[in-house]
Amino acid sequence: MTIADLMQQIEETERLIAVYRECFTYVRDWVEKKVRRHLAQARKRKGFGWGRWSRPWLYVTLGLFNSYRVRHDRPKVAPV
């Protein structure tokens, strides 16, 4: 394995991590939007409550899951 091959593999891995992070961010924002809309409708209000409920309040008080992470596993085989 040459240095160029190693650099290419590192770049591909970084690109994949960026894509996964973007997907997790999309899911987190989508869930937060649905929860906000539900809370607003339950109180017979319009909108999503962006000014009414802060992000920390949603995640701490309601216990929304906020630990979306890309896990970096170690290689199963040690490099030669």
Topology:
Blueprint (H helix, E strand, L loop, with lengths): L2 H40 L12 H7 L19
Compact summary:
This protein is 59% helix and 0% strand.
Can you tell me about this structure?
With 80 residues, the protein is mainly alpha-helical. It has one domain (3-61). It has two helices and no strands.
Largest sheet: none
Low-confidence stretches: none
| DSSP strand count | 0
Query: What is the helix content?
Result: 55-70%
The termini sit apart by: 10 Å
| Tally of helical runs | 2
Structural class by secondary-structure content: mainly alpha
Radius of gyration: 20 Å
Averaged pLDDT, please?
86
Strand-residue proportion: under 5%
Shape: elongated
Query: How many distinct folded domains?
Result: 1
Order of helices and strands: HH
Which key terms come to mind for this protein?
single chain; 80 residues; mainly alpha; elongated
